[in-house]
Amino acid sequence: MTDEGLAAWLAPRLTDFPLRCQTDAVDFDPVPLAGLSTSNVRHTRPPLPSLDLSSGRA
């Protein structure tokens, strides 16, 4: 992020991310979600090639 004003606004809103959110399986019904529109954001500044696999899956 290069905008200092935006960074100052964002910083107090950042929170820790629980590890279990990444390790525990999720059980849900995909049918209600099938009709929702989706969008994906690609990290470009700086480019992060390590995210290419995840981007391809999305």
Instruction: Give the N-terminus to C-terminus distance in angstroms.
Output: 23 Å
> Helix fraction?
25-40%
Radius of gyration: 16 Å
Point out poorly predicted stretches: none
How many helices does DSSP assign? 3
The major β-sheet equals:
none
Q: Which class best fits the helix and strand makeup?
A: mainly alpha
What's the overall geometry? extended
Q: How large is the share of residues in beta strands? A: under 5%
The residue-averaged pLDDT reads 89
Order of helices and strands: HHH
Structure overview:
- The structure is a single chain.
- Helices cover 29% and strands 0% of the residues.
- With 58 residues, it is mainly alpha-helical.
Key attributes of the depicted protein:
mainly alpha; 0% strand; 3 helices; single chain
